[in-house]
Amino acid sequence: MFYRPEDGHGLPHNPFNAIVTPRPIGWISTRGKDGSENLAPYSFFNAVAYTPPQVMFASTGRKADRDGTKDSVANIRDSGVFCVNIVEYSAREAMNTSSGAYGREVDEFTLADLKREECRTIPCSRVAGAPAALECRLTRMVRLEGEDNILVLGEVTGIHMRDDCLKDGMFDVTRFQPLARLGYRDYTHVTEVFSMDRPGQS
């Protein structure tokens, strides 16, 4: 099968998200200028550079009360900071609860019954007890093609790692099984890993 996106795929559901998988989930916490807090998952998320460490996520929709975007982007636009919380398998229901299109007054930490802790390098809350959290300062926002697509880039200024996720000095994802997004309504989680050396590595 071949199709041009502008012509449509002719399938019951859009296959694009099922092709580009699995995608890590960035559980983005932000704070508004009025002090309100927001927590929302984004599967268009990844790390993009080592030195300095940088990450990205993309927002692909809008809310009527947020001037053409969503709460996360609106808050980051005002504050210049955000935190990426890593989602473990055991937090899947809380993550899903926080994914709803709620009004800007709704605090997803409270709604999903999640404890919060203050970040150390930025004025923002993070999910307490998450396997890892990346405190970030906004470096750039890019409006992408399409009506409501916004790319957010940030430099990581602080990194939290849960102690029980460290094994022999390495961050061991099998200890918490990170949740990943597939297509449609599907998810997966990492339960095993394998290693390979690149050519020339010893």
Characterization of the model:
It is a single chain. The chain is mostly beta strands and 202 residues long. It has a single domain, classed as Roll (Pnp Oxidase, Chain A). The protein has 4 helices and 14 strands. It has helices at residues 16-19, 71-79, 92-97, 108-111; strands spanning 23-24, 26-31, 37-42, 45-49, 54-59, 81-86, 116-118, 125-127, 132-143, 150-161, 166-167, 170-171, 179-181, 187-189. The strands form 4 sheets. It has a 7-stranded antiparallel β-sheet with strand order 3-2-6-9-10-5-4, with helices on one face. Strands 1-13-14 form a 3-stranded antiparallel β-sheet, with no helix packed on it. It has a two-stranded antiparallel sheet with strand order 7-8. A hairpin with a 6-residue loop joins strand 9 and strand 10 (150-161). It starts with 15 loop residues before the first helix and ends in a 13-residue tail after the last strand. The mean pLDDT is 95.
List the main descriptive attributes of the protein structure presented here.
202 residues, mainly beta, Pnp Oxidase, Chain A, seven-stranded antiparallel beta sheet, three-stranded antiparallel beta sheet, globular
Beta-strand content estimate: 35-45%
* Rg estimate, integer Å: 18 Å
Which oligomeric state applies?
single chain
Overall domain count: 1
Number of helices: 4
Largest sheet: 7 strands, antiparallel
Question: Strands, helices and their partners?
Answer:
Blueprint: H1 16-19, E1 23-24, E2 26-31, E3 37-42, E4 45-49, E5 54-59, H2 71-79, E6 81-86, H3 92-97, H4 108-111, E7 116-118, E8 125-127, E9 132-143, E10 150-161, E11 166-167, E12 170-171, E13 179-181, E14 187-189
Antiparallel strand pairs: 1-13, 2-3, 2-6, 4-5, 5-10, 6-9, 7-8, 9-10, 11-12, 13-14
